[in-house]
Specification:
CATH class of the largest domain: Alpha Beta
Number of domains: 2
Radius of gyration: 17 Å
Mean pLDDT: 91
CATH superfamily of the largest domain: P-loop containing nucleotide triphosphate hydrolases
Order of helices and strands: EEEHEEHEHHHEHEHEEHH
Number of helices: 9
Bound molecules: adenosine-5'-triphosphate, magnesium ion
Structural class: alpha/beta
Shape: globular
Oligomer: single chain
Strand order of the largest sheet: 6-7-8-3-9-10
């Protein structure tokens, strides 16, 4: 069995009376490509917020590399090799594209064997396909290029676990396919575990090996795409609408 990178055990997040994430347990292993799907408001982003240290779970444990990260700040999650993108991209609009990447590199608190190709702005820009835009201010590139830039900023911290929140939202069909190819390459070539939240379910299911389905804060399925699409509970809660044409 591949190395266990992150264990989420019984993660619960409450906002007042609302339980956004309800006792979610999931293990993420080295070099896995995992999708997370589920209806709007299912708790997907809140789960990411909890496992990247952006918010503290109401209860539950997070264990990375044998260390208990529960209650620690986001920098401890970064030091443990966890990086994420946000559903609404967060780039520095007035800084050049290359400077945005440089910012991530400066905060790479750790060097990692095997991640040598992520040690320069040029190599990251080449990987995400923004070499020609390097000198432009981030505000001057398209929204879909800003999504790529945000991935580049996350890569610059040389993560072992990369969390992507709807990086294909608002993209054209062709751009979504390119994004899926990039995600595959990051996992294949950079020895990284990637967890990918997306509503573009048919594309996602074609590319991931494992998919977790959240519904009303709970895990209702965790298996291969073939298993999940046949699951009656998943079809009823989500896929019936998403995949019907
Ligand atoms: N900071 C917050 N305060 C209060 N309620 C919140 C907060 N963040 C999220 N919620 C609520 O928690 C639930 C889960 O939201 P979340 O954003 O995690 O869903 P999601 O699965 O990412 O949805 P989407 O697919 O629309 O992005 C929703 O009911 C949402 O309104
Ligand atoms: Mg969300």
């Amino acid at each position: 069995m591949a190395e266990l990178l992150l264990q989420a055990q019984g993660i619960t997040v409450r906002f007042g009376g609302l339980t956004a994430v309800d006792a979610v347990s999931a293990d993420f292993h080295a070099s896995e490509l995992v999708g997370i799907i589920g209806p709007n408001g299912a708790g997907k982003t809140t789960f990411f917020n909890a496992i990247s240290g952006v918010i503290a779970p109401t209860s539950g444990q997070l264990i990375a590399g044998g260390r208990n990260l529960s209650g620690k700040g986001p920098h401890r999650y970064a030091a443990a090799g966890i990086a994420r993108t946000f559903q609404t991209p967060r780039v520095f609009p007035d800084m050049q594209v290359s400077e945005n990447i440089g910012f991530g590199l400066k905060f790479a608190g750790r060097s990692r064997e095997g991640a040598w190709h992520l040690r320069s702005e040029e190599s990251i820009l080449a990987l995400i396909g923004l070499g020609a835009q390097a000198a432009l201010p981030a505000a001057a590139i398209t929204p879909s290029q800003q999504r790529l830039l945000e991935i580049g900023m996350a890569l610059a911290t040389r993560p072992r676990l990369l969390l992507l929140d709807e990086v294909a939202a608002g993209l054209t069909e062709a751009e979504i396919e390119n994004m899926a190819q990039l995600i595959r390459r990051m996992r294949d070539e950079l020895d990284m575990t990637v967890v990918w939240i997306e509503h573009a379910v048919t594309t996602l299911l074609r590319h991931v090996e494992r998919v977790i389905v959240l519904h009303q804060g709970r895990v209702i399925a965790d298996g291969t795409p073939a298993e999940v699409v046949r699951d009656a509970g998943v079809i009823e809660a989500y896929l019936g609408d998403e995949m019907a044409v």
